[in-house]
Design a protein that fits this description.
Glutaredoxin, Glutathione S-transferase Yfyf (Class Pi), Chain A, domain 2, four-stranded mixed β-sheet, 9 helices, binds S-(P-nitrobenzyl)glutathione
Length: 216
């Protein structure tokens, strides 16, 4: 049975690969697992059939036989556990890769995501400039630490892992902000992730959805 994931029928990012199905697509491409995509509208995401799988009415979801999963981090972890290539073999190295997965989602993503939301939803508020500065201060604090840790290594902890996959998807959201470029080794790290053939296949697949949506 083929794995099925869900993604936006019409992603608000118009194919920039910023929605969280991108990380699931990328993980599946890295391990060479074929998948189908079920495109859902905002309305369908809030209906009982989808809520039965994703209690918060969001994408992505993942179904494989009798397993239905939600939360992109849990999905990527499941894919990494089931296949070779996204988690190292050694017990300690594996635990550290998991730590980087959590760091991406719990420590680095929140201020970056909040900044994106603020630029969309809070732009007209009188306190917008102050809020943006505060969020960007936190982002810079996180990136400075991450940059120091990465140094001149290619990946966060030895070979490419699910931790890198999630971290790159998180940092990509800073494209266009100018902030990533303040940390040249992080900008190069993101470019390295985006240059991976599996990343490119995943990006093209979600771009094709956006192109079809804008044509239709
Ligand atoms: N913690 C969950 C996970 O990691 O799976 C979060 C899932 C989530 O935020 N899903 C979003 C969603 O379904 C899509 S990715 N939102 C609809 C809703 O909540 O009703 C977030 C997202 C949305 C839009 C853009 N964009 O346009 O750039 C980028 C990212």
């Amino acid at each position: 049975m083929t794995i099925t994931i869900t993604a936006f029928e019409r992603s608000p990012d118009r194919g920039r690969g910023l929605a969280r199905d991108m990380r699931v697509r990328w993980a599946l491409e890295e391990v060479g697992e074929p998948y189908d995509v079920c495109l859902v509208s905002f309305k369908e995401m809030k209906e009982p059939a989808h809520l039965a799988i994703q209690p918060f009415g969001q994408i992505p979801t993942y179904e494989d036989g009798d397993l239905a999963l939600f939360e992109s981090g849990a999905i990527v972890f499941h894919i990494a556990e089931e296949h070779q290539g996204l988690l190292p073999d050694g017990r300690n190295a594996r635990a550290r890769a998991l730590a980087w997965m959590f760091a991406a989602l719990n420590t680095v993503e929140p201020p970056i995501f909040d900044r994106s939301l603020a630029t969309i939803l809070e732009r007209d508020q009188p306190w917008y400039a102050h809020r943006l500065r505060a969020l960007e201060d936190v982002i810079r604090m996180r990136l400075a630490s991450l940059s120091k840790h990465l140094g001149d290594a290619d990946w966060l902890d030895g070979p490419f892992s699910a931790g890198d996959l999630l971290m790159v998807t998180v940092l990509r959201r800073l494209h266009g902000s100018g902030i990533l470029e303040e940390y040249p080794n992080l900008a190069a790290y993101v470019a390295r992730g985006e240059a991976r053939p599996a990343y490119k296949r995943a990006f093209e697949a979600q771009l094709a959805v956006a192109a079809a949506a804008s044509a239709g």
